């Protein structure tokens, strides 16, 4: 997974899990405050992101990921780094 | 012990999600026509299980009752329960969100809750490890979440819980909810049951105890209570909710009262995990007590919606129990098993059958026991064989018996019934 990421793909993934329209998923928006995601939604989203982008999301990073932009920048930097499913931290 | 105390409890609304229809009129039409909702299993591939038939809910559209996100996060049984609750409230003309939060409560009972989600997450655990278990696993699997979800969606802040007693769950739930109204702890209770347990584990497990019919080549004829050709029950699924309302409140607001919950009683068999007491002692004590609680004599009961699961032991034990309570009158009253059409809704069965009693009284028709072609000589009561029967019934009894030896009986009666029992009549005017 070294190709450039497509933001629309993340929009679609997040929209499916949060039950909203994909266009609503925009970089400056907070998951909790703007997209009405509760803590369970966020865990579900991060699990899906880990699978889709082959990344591991460490807990200390998750705490910093308040907005769509935070997540997107992390994915740009780290996608494809995870080699084993058991590396995933979220759970 | 004595007659019912407290206020009359009115039934003012019904909601159905069932194998024979997802609205009252369709359900009733199919009951009266004697149509079966049993067919080949489509929810999963039953492979070479001995039983490959069930009574599945068809054409259920969760999006009609909840948004997409809620639907994703609710187990099938909770979806069914929420849908039935919304329909029951609409039917009653009650909007809890406009009332005092304490005024409306919810008792949604289920035998096993989100067992489908338990199985799904167990499969994920085995295949992918604990870090891929859904964060929604716990809220989706627990058997009380259906009641909680209904409260969240309709704005009902009164007493809220689930009752678990296997196949008697929602009979206990309705009985206890009626008592909550009777003692004045809520003005309105949404009460009923939901089950969605047609899963590989549950079906496989019932097959292992040879409890379920294997008549795979003729699904509509598989559930045949009181018939010598029966070979076990048929798993069903669905949800049924009743709006139980303080009788005086219902009268004040000019609500249409379909029937009243006259009394309820519960006993234990003290006998076996799955088999009924062959003498029907626990069941008969529950029936007698429920009738007494309603301030009635057994001779006033005109119709029994039997537990009648289509197992030999159960059918015979129930017949014996009815004879113990009703004596000669057992030959005069009508006893049908609507499981013959809808299958066994397990934790929702008691609610479905109480609702059938409500409709039978309100509409003056007794639904039949279908597939009754060769009656078991040991089940020699009037089972309303194969064809619905017009009849005025003022008092009906709904029997529910669950694995574990739980017995729950609910008396459903005509509103403002002019019975001979003074206590109940007196309460109605007080």
Could you please describe the fold and organization of this structure?
The complex is a heterodimer of chains A (91) and B (430). With 91 residues, chain A is mostly helical. Chain A has one domain: ACP-like (Non-ribosomal Peptide Synthetase Peptidyl Carrier Protein, Chain A). Chain A is built from five helices and no strands. In chain A, helix 1 packs antiparallel against helix 3. The longest helix of chain A is centred in the middle third of the chain and has 15 residues. Chain A starts with 6 loop residues before the first helix and ends in a 13-residue tail after the last helix. The mean pLDDT of chain A is 87. Chain B is an alpha/beta fold. Chain B has two domains: 244 residues, 3-Layer(aba) Sandwich (Peroxisomal Thiolase, Chain A, domain 1), CATH 3.40.47.10; 170 residues, Peroxisomal Thiolase, Chain A, domain 1. Chain B is built from 14 helices and 14 strands. In chain B, the strands form three sheets. In chain B, strands 5-4-6-7-1-8-14-13-9-10 form a ten-stranded mixed beta sheet, with helices on both faces. In chain B, helix 7 packs across helix 13. The longest helix of chain B has 17 residues. Chain B is globular and about 65 Å long. The C terminus of chain B is likely disordered. At the A-B interface, helix 3 of A face helix 2 of B.
